[in-house]
Amino acid sequence: MIPLFEMRGITKEYRGVPAIRNVDFTLLQGEVHALLGENGAGKSTLTKIMAGVVQPTGGTMRLDGRPVVFATPAIALKQGVAMVFQETTLVPSMTVAQNLYLGEERFLNRLRGIYISAQQFLQSLNFPVDPAATVASLGAAKKQMVEIGRAVRHNARILVFDEPTAALTPEEKHHFVALVERLKSRGVSIVFISHALEEALEIADRITVLRDGQHIVTDVTANFDRDKIIHAMVGRSLSGELYRRREQSQVRPPGRRVLSVQDLTMGNMVRNNSFSVYEGQITGIFGLVGSGRSETARIVAGVVKRDFFHGGEVRFEDRAVRYKVPAPAVRDGIVYVTEDRKLEGFFETMSIADNLYAGLLAKNLNAGGPIVNMAEMRRLADAWTQTLNIRAINKNARAVELSGGNQQKLVIGKALLQKPRLIIFDEPTRGVDVGAIGEIHQLINRLADEGLAVIMISSYLPEIMNLSDRILVCRQGRVVEEFMPGRVTEEKIMYAAVH
Amino acid sequence: MKGWLFRRAHFSQERIVLAITIALFVLFSATLNRFLTSANLLSLLQSVSVLGILGVGMAIVVIGRGIDLSIVAIMAIPVAWVLYMMNQGVPVPAAFALGLGFSVAIGVLNGLFIAYVEVPALFATLATGAFVYGFGRSQLFNQDIIYLPASASWIAAVGRMHVAQVPIAVVFFAAISLAGFLVLRYTKIGRFFYLIGENYLAARITGIPARPMIVIQYVLSSLVAFIAGTLTAAAVTSMNTRVVNSTLIYDVILVVVVGGIGLSGGKGGIRNVIIGTLLIGILLDGMTILDVRYTLQNLIKSIILLVAILVDSIVNPRDEQTDQQGDI
Description:
The complex is a heterodimer. Chain A is α/β, with parallel strands linked by helices.
């Protein structure tokens, strides 16, 4: 049987650094194919190549046995390969129908006409979405339906999903599973990336596992179980090491109360949020996207733009504080390590030394006169590069040339140079390679051992379970529940976060 | 110099511009017999000194990912006002103090608009430049050209002064370049300018007082503009406010961009301004000796500016992320 879609020896290098190497991948007609692997394994890159979003450095692709080159996503779509993105590409201010017909409007565009045909089309797919509703008013699941609908309308024969269920609630996930079944019955082939192994085992016909940019195994789902997949994903027992359950005896006792947040409110993102953070402990904050966890942290550290402090009180070391910009918070000892390091974490064309030194300069604005001390800068850079084990091609490498993990270490190093008394990590291991995740976890543990108050925001449950001394769960703008790490299960935390 | 990487990022573009400059110099020296004389070279330097000084002011804001389109208005109007007041009998120190205060106030205003109100620098400075010109011409004085009063002929004498045969304007250009170099390279404020230009949000989160730094940048560029204006007035014993409507602002941007200071911010330094100034100076001087028509000179300059901006946006994409290792 000729596979519907075939990739042979696909390699993609970013500036000479391979993201995926020599990967083979086949997709059969009408199958659901799950793509698994750890962060940085190359799943996103592979799917982006499939859909023409990214061009491979080497390798060939065949569709229906004919060689194809997808120079742009539009070309891929024309050939029947559509990608459904994590962040939807819909126009929020337009209606569902307008989005479905985007780019094919006739010269005289009759709204009623497209509403009727959109209604019929959505019904044929069994999607319960109102075509006249604006996309902005829809939940994540329905947005996804519209996105899928758009792909199906373009006669997509292959649908590529990047973490389709990440933003969905458990009920919505059931809908997604049913939806996949319906698409499959229409003869559509589906590739999806997932972090939830159970989901892959439940809905996929075949599973491919990638590791460190290389193809590890492809087989029918029946030949897999959870352990086998994890083994293929990690290859070494690192995963067990990284995300082992925390023993009750390892939990650090709370020290002095450093931060107390009372009834904090900001628009409808943060509502009457109250919690405390203690010295010498890692306070893990779990919550889904939109639960207000990052926003709360950003208000505490003065990072939110303008004065969105709409009510409540923040006390840092028994002093009421209200920061409108990060600078005074940094000088008082609150440092926020951002979740989006590319956007606001580091200075990309500058060296490791320049980046680290920036943190020190900002903290000690008036110390040491107005002149910079180059010798001190180099000394600090050498010392911290060693402490944090930041690996670069050479000393003068620009921050942008480092790997994700080393960039993250750099951002953390810049924060630690500021000698914080409260450090807030927002998704500290997002987009970080597996090896560096372990190092960053060790570092966070060490900070708490040294008596620092640490807040760690994460949407990755194993990370929360392994590192936290207390687990706070955020939902709809406030902390709703607190758990002790030794006694709680992932299911309980997830339940608190979504219900 | 380890750790100082702004240099390396720009090495290639800078080297190209330097090579072109040297090539033009050699070409003009070989072909134009009036070019390679010390008198011509000194007059060349003198004629581009004011441009170079303005370039230093512009470089400071461009490094911070801004732009100051009001720099020519700030050069012309406050200085013209100073001359006007001197004509009206205001004591010289008082007139200068008021003129300087006016310049600084406009710089502060620019900075407040850009840093605190978050108006894009392009629009904020375009508007303040037009405001300064309109305000000066309608409210402060009512002439295009204000002459230096005879009573202050010592200022003209200073303007004609030479230090060891080097015209005073060139000395000022050198001094301001040196000052700019020291500030940008060796002071915390200078380093903050680079960090803010490189990544404003990261600078802010790191705890750098980003908004005050932006205000300081525009105050510095205003100060430099005032000095440039004073030098001009001293050299030609008058201030022609019509310079605001000339192509001078494009020449200033030309000097900065051709020299290799990326408009995307965080890169380049005073050395780039000097190279840019020399290139433009040699080019203009050569074209003048060759008797190229003024309009044709403008065409040539504008083509160079276009090419420079194109090269700049290819060499330094404003969003490097697109060019970088994405999420894997």
